[in-house]
Structure formats: C-alpha cells, structure tokens
Amino acid sequence: MRFPWDRPAPLVHRPNRIARSWTMGTALRDRDVRHALKQKLLRDHLSDPRTLVLEELGLRHGTCRVDIAIVNGQIHGYEIKSDSDTLERLPSQLEIYSRVLDQATLVVGSKHADKAISSLPEWWGIRVATIGPRSAINFELIRKSKRNPNIDPIAVAELLWRSEVIEILRKVGIAPNQLRQPRSNLYCLMTVVFSLTELRKIVRQRLKDREKWRGRQPPSLNDDLLTPIPT
Questions:
Q1: What is this structure's pTM?
Q2: Where are the beta strands (DSSP E) in the chain?
Q3: Cα–Cα 20 to 30 A to 139, which of 37, 104, 165, 226?
Q4: Pairwise CA distance, residues 60 & 155, whole Å
Q5: What's the domain range around 128?
C-alpha cells in the first residue's frame, strides 16, 4: 500500500518560505551547511563512542563519496547540496548511494530544493537548509529517511579493504589458493559466504575497528570529521 507521504514533496505549499533565503541574496555554502549539520543534527552521534562519523566515505572504490556517513547499527549517508553547488552529479550519486547505504538523507539549499527533491527515490530523507532571521542555518524536515530496499551486496562488500576481506575469509576456512584471486572475485565470494544481513554487520564493525583513519581522536563539533587514508 502506498501512502501520500511516500511521494517526494513538491514543496508548493510553502513557496514563500523556501524562496526567501535565496532571494535575499545569501547563498548557503557547503562548509556552512556542514558545520550547522554537525552542530544541530549530528551532535548526539559525534559524542557517542559507539558511533563512527566519517566525512567523504568512498563508495564503489571512490567512484563517489558520501559527504557525511553515520555508522552505528546502520550506515546513514548525508548528501549536501548547498545553494552554491550544482545538481550535475546528483543522478550518478543517487545510483551509487542506493546500492550501498542503509538510509540516506539529502540536505539541500532552497535554491535547488524543488528540482532535487523531485528526483529522489522514495526512501530518501529530505531536509531543506534555510537561513533564519538571525543568520542561523535551519534544517526543515520534509521527509524522514526509510530503509533502502535495494542494497547491492557486492557494493557493500567493496567498502572493505582487500586485506580485511582476506582476513575475514581465512577465518571462516576459505582455502589459501582461493584468497589469491583478484579483488573483485573476493568481493563476490564474500556475498556467497555471508548473507546480506551478516555482510552489513561485518562491514559496519570493520569500519569502526579500522586503525588507518586520518586523525584517530574522536571528532568534535568544531573539528573536521575523520576521513580515510587511501590504501
């Protein structure tokens, strides 16, 4: 059964409010939206030792990167499209995000809101970033995110480094000669050995346990978030 709130919101019921922050001549920038997002929406995650918060998490071997990823009992990605951004890459980002992430939220400036929202899958969450009367950035909730129904197991496995895959497969008894296969074959083998539920759990834990993240200290509300060191 489909419900009215499952459809992307056209925003026609509040055009004056959304248009105001753009027409006033104050264009929201990516860095401003990121900072406000950490301060207002991600504060609890940043202070939770059980949660990993990552900036620029690479998907499909770096084909695209999630602006901010929250890793706890799921992987929730936040994609930022400020007024200063373009929507040129959004279609390809949506396709890749939808293969990997458990949940996703688009944080979009009012300039691009209507166009961006109309292109989103129904399981994506939506927040519109606007500037308030005291120049504070606010995030209007348009739609809550839901569970991604179309996760690709191989795309999830690709979040692991080759060395991690080999270690995991060795522990479950895979023969050494099979572990010398190309990386793409090892990812496929992971999807054969483990169910999607098991694989998602393994990947989340490996991301949390990883030592090679740039900046080992927990991120603060004012510091840059952790980003991975390429291998």
A1: 0.79
A2: 52-59, 64-71, 75-81, 103-109, 125-131, 137-143, 213-214, 227-228
A3: 226
A4: 6
A5: 4-149
Q: What is the pLDDT of residues 51-82, one digit of tens each?
A: 999 999 999 998 999 999 999 999 999 999 99
Domain end marker among 96, 125, 149 = 149
Q: How far apart are CA 120 and CA 108, in angstroms?
A: 12
Clarify whether residues 145 and 170 are in a common domain. Answer: no
The answer to whether residue 160 scores a pLDDT higher than 70 is: yes
Q: Do the domain assignments include residue 34?
A: yes
Least confident of 17-31, 68-82, 191-205: 17-31
- Is the same domain home to 98 and 210? no
Left (φ > 0), alpha (ψ -120 to 50) or beta: where does 69 sit?
beta
pLDDT of residue 132: 83
Identify which has the larger pLDDT, 124 or 46.
124
Specify if 104 maps to a domain.
yes
Q: To which H or E segment does residue 99 belong? A: helix 90-100
* Residue 228 lies inside a defined structural domain of this protein: no
User: Is the pLDDT score of 6 beyond 70?
Assistant: no
Distances (CA, A) of 2 to 117, 118, 119, 124, 141: 18, 17, 18, 15, 20
What are residue 70's phi and psi, to 5 degrees?
-105, 120
Query: What's the total number of domains in the chain?
Result: 2
As a dihedral over the C-alpha atoms of residue 209, residue 165, residue 158, residue 193, rounded to 10 degrees, the angle is -110
